Amino acid sequence: MSALRRKLGDEYQVVSTSASGGGLPPPRAAPRGKRQRFVDKNGRCNVQHGNLGGETSRYLSDLFTTLVDLKWRWNLFIFILTYTVAWLFMASMWWVIAYMRGDLNKAHDDSYTPCVANVYNFPSAFLFFIETEATIGYGYRYITDKCPEGIILFLFQSILGSIVDAFLIGCMFIKMSQPKKRAETLMFSEHAAISMRDGKLTLMFRVGNLRNSHMVSAQIRCKLLKSRQTPEGEFLPLDQLELDVGFSTGADQLFLVSPLTICHVIDAKSPFYDLSQRSMQTEQFEIVVILEGIVETTGMTCQARTSYTEDEVLWGHRFFPVISLEEGFFKVDYSQFHATFEVPTPPYSVKEQEEMLLMSSPLIAPAVSNSKERNNSVECLDGLDEVGTKLPSKLQKITGREDFPKKLLRMSSTTSEKAYSMGDLPMKLQRISSVPGNSEEKLVSKTAKMLSDPMSQSVADLPPKLQKLSGGGGGGRMEGNLPPKLRKMNSDRFT
Questions:
Q1: How many other C-beta atoms lie within 10 A of the C-beta of residue 379?
Q2: Name one Pfam family in it (predicted).
Q3: Residues 6+ apart with CB under 8 A from 319
Q4: Do residues 149 and 115 make contact, with C-beta atoms less than 8 angstroms apart?
Q5: How confident is the model at residue 306 (pLDDT cuts 50, 70, 90)?
């Protein structure tokens, strides 16, 4: 067994794998508490690069950017050190020339022409260099035409001084003009909120600009940082997922003159599709917000960042309004910028809400009832078949149609099935398909008429006396009034 130990912030996870292989088990959930953020609230990224090896030489290849990225204390130290070393080096070169020519010993000889007038020692050589480099020109120390090596050194000093000035002063100017401090006047709300907006579950946070100068072409983006494991067993620490804040509709392009509420609609395409109020208590994620724009006064690009962890996302909250109309202008109250209040919000995720809505849909009930009615109609038909076989042969002859009940019930069952299927149709189609001639009352009247036809035909076949007897009294008294011969004839006729 081999153990793979991973550290994500201050959360440690131990994952074991067997020698025979197999996928990595999912990481164990760390206990709730304050954990290491990937991006601080002020936008600083908590990432340190280590074990670079031979890659450190890449920093020297881009020395100017390396100096600009350094902290101010290191920039000032390099600035002072570079000028001090350059001045001491050039002053030493002038002193060496004076020493090699013997100007130091003949400095007070008026008949001798030195390389540099009035240079007696190293301090005087240093002052000559400073006067020349700073173009002060006091006029007391100057170079003469009897020193060609001094002229060459003077040219080298001018070129080297220009390069050092351009490099260091340019580096300091770029560092001072960086728009990082402009991001200090761009505000983000301390918490994010989840509540209903326009009938949809929405993740919201607020941004604001404290300066009167605008951010040109301001654009906002959101990233979701969450560790996950792929179906193949690969563990992805701090996997980055995009949160749509209006890219398709252009809502991510901001006109940031007053505080704005940025919205992310939680739908089937959102990473928060299955996020509920209960699951937020066990989830671990971080939402990184990036606001970019061009500073109107300098024309330089500025970027402000912040992040929200799962503890800073409030379920069922909404932001207070901060804009009010005054006399001739709109007033922004920044005291309510971070304030929220509770609103009624379902604690279920969007996925759970869609499943509950699907289960409560009325379109499912007719389908179930149709199947039950079909089963009942089939059972009724089977029962009628059994009853029909048990009837005497005389009654089967009277009806004259042995399969009539079965057909009739099939027709009625078909009618009921049509009625249930019509319930699934829209109202317009139900009105069109509901023809008055197919009502149940007419169907029942037709059935009664069909049942009465065989009986009327059988009575019509009797002799006139028997028809009279059957019409005057009931069928039970007719046989009692007939003579024995007629009774026998009547019985033979029915059999």
A1: 10
A2: IRK
A3: 189, 193, 204, 206, 261, 339, 340
A4: yes
A5: very high
* Tokens describing residue 320: 């207070």
Q: What angle do the packed helices 72-101 and 122-133 form, to 10 degrees? A: 120
What CA–CA distance (Å, rounded) separates 10 from 238? 14
| Helical H segments across 116-211, by residue range | 122-133, 148-176
Q: Which residue has the tokens 């994620």?
A: 285
Kindly give the pairing relationship between strand 11-17 and strand 215-229.
Answer: unpaired
Q: How far apart are CA 199 and CA 292, in angstroms?
A: 30
SS3 437: helix
Which tokens hold the place of 200? 């949809």
pLDDT for 492: 57
DSSP 84: H
| pLDDT value for 105 | 80
How far apart, in Å, are the Cα atoms of 402 and each of 398, 452, 494? 10, 15, 17
For 380-429, what is each residue's pLDDT tens digit?
A: 445 434 444 444 554 444 444 444 444 444 444 444 444 444 444 445 44
Which residues neighbour 212 within 8 Å (Cβ) at sequence distance 6 or greater? Answer: none
Query: Can you give the length of the chain in residues?
Result: 495
Give which of 217, 218, 221, 275 is closest to 244, Cα–Cα: 221
**What does the block give as tokens for 222?**
């959101």
Alpha carbon 485 to its chain's center: 99
| Residue corresponding to tokens 């690969």 | 234
Q: Name which of 17, 3, 302 is nearest 177 in CA terms.
A: 302
Residue 68 confidence class, pLDDT cut points 50, 70, 90 = confident
**CB–CB of 84/59 below 8 Å?**
no
Residue 19 confidence (pLDDT): 33
Torsion of Cα atoms, 338 then 343 then 347 then 351, to 10°:
-90
Mean pLDDT of the chain: 75
Which residue has tokens 């206990």?
31
**DSSP summary character for residue 479:** H
pTM (2 d.p.): 0.59
Residue 448 has pLDDT above 60, yes or no: no
Among residues 202, 494, 147, which one has the least CA distance to residue 345?
Answer: 202
State the amino acid at position 92 in one-letter form.
S
